[in-house]
Design a protein that fits this description.
Helices cover about 45% and strands about 15% of the residues. The protein has 18 helices and 19 strands.
Amino acid sequence: MQMNRGHHTVNKVIASVLSYIFIIMAIAVPAHADEKQVETTPSRIPLSNLEETIDAYVASYEKYTAAVSVVAIKDGETIVNKAYGYADIENQRKADTSTVFEWASISKLLVYTSVMQLVEQGKLDLETDIREYLPEGFFKKLKYDEPITLLNLMHHNAGWEDQTVTEVYYYDENENVDLGDTLRKNEPKQIYKPNSIVGYSNYGIGLAGYIVEEISGQPFYEYVNQHIFKPLHMNDTTVHPTGRDRPDLVQRRNEIEGYTKDLKLIPENRVYVTFYPTGAAMGTAEDLGKFLAALMPVDDSNVLFKNRDTLNEMLSTSLYYEGTSTPRFAHGFVEMEYWVPTLMHEGNLKGFSSKLVFDPESKFGMVVMTNQSFEEIYYYGLIKEIFGDNVNSNIITSEGGGYFQSARRPAARFTDLFRQLDITKFSKADLAKSYNVVEHNGIVEKISVTPYIDYLPVSNLKVNLIKISLIPVILAILFSVTALLVYFIRMLLLYKRNKRGNPRIDLNKYHLAINVAGALLPLNLLVIHTRLPNYPAHSSIRINLMFNLLYVVLAVAYLGLLIYKLRKNSYSKKQKVMYIMSGISAFILAAFVVGWNLYV
């Protein structure tokens, strides 16, 4: 009996435990079965609250905003499509979802997609020397024998110097010429060995667009219309160099103005891009959202490519930061680590900023377009709000920081002077925040401050030499100004003493001319420098560059004349000193103009 009671007790315990388990399962299982996991942005904002979050964000920055258009895509569907602010502040014209913005450099994604379509067809190979696809003798300024591939163009590491802003843009649509002729005419120097340095190159992407033309037999804009815009029903976008194929879109584009970050109207904010595949697209943010959705298809359907593997290849890493396993480029798309790995591209044009960023894994992406130049509140801030922050951290073994210069620079153009003056000093803490630091034996060889551009070290000696070289230039300018003041003071005194007589001083008219020119030279350089941020056409500053060249001619003529005059004529000691000092000043300033290529 005792044994039976124990057995009964055990059965009772087992029954109780089983009942407990069934109760828990009855409660827990239905809860999990019925409850759908809340979908969020990469920064953990519920998608159901996304529009409200964007509304609140825009409202908090309303006084800093001209117009902004935002599109969010999830699983191929548009979940947000809104426009805020004013397309034209002066005329109080509000922006809406039909407002046409400039894509700027996001246009390059059309080039990469077109190239990959032709790769899929076997008409292009990413690792073949591009000279095989170009007319014979196309290049005239290549320095290195190494092949240049389409991947080099996508990675911006073919080695070309940068064009000046005056060569990248123009204002008269009638100046539009054939893309191939434009590329030949504006071929830059090759200053780095291919594959060694990343230096953002509009020329390189324009060249890739031209290769698409050569292989397809169509103008680039026609190819894109047929193979990208039409299949995606992007009816409100054009990439024609002047938009001439879509006058209706040009009209809508002309209804929006461009502004600075502090909402100052930018005059003449409609510019044309010389290598137009790099930045000529314009259209609605909604249309750009259609392109974004096509990059993240939810099933086996694939509009851009016949084979899904081609899309996967295009969006896969093709370049890592040197010496690391950190992704940098995916066939032209920039790889950026926010709270999740993303692919993105940015764009800046006169009066416009744009950004496209997406997470292929979760199939969530965003488009942000504004009519403000180098805008940051939405371009960076809103993206960070939605995708989380991006943190870069490097372990630096070198002793400290130093001076660095952007690899994206002209090598022998008038803007090189202004780039040299922008040499930046980075501390060790700054280097640790860079995207990548390449070191060898404790010496920093290059850093990547942005994914698009490497920065190269500049020795303290070079920095000091640049500073020291400016001292005689400043002294020469001061002398020219002083000489002019002395001259006019003497003229004034002589006029008061003898109103009807001529000045009784043997002051050579060439001496006066060279000092006037020397005083005007820094003013002319200041005009050039202040105009550069406004993307002037090269033709509009040609007169400034011609003045610099004219100064060199005047300086040479004055020096020759000075030597001749000093041999033939007798001057007072004071006059000789004045003339010779003017000659030395002219020589210094002429050397400065020639040395910094301030005439080309």
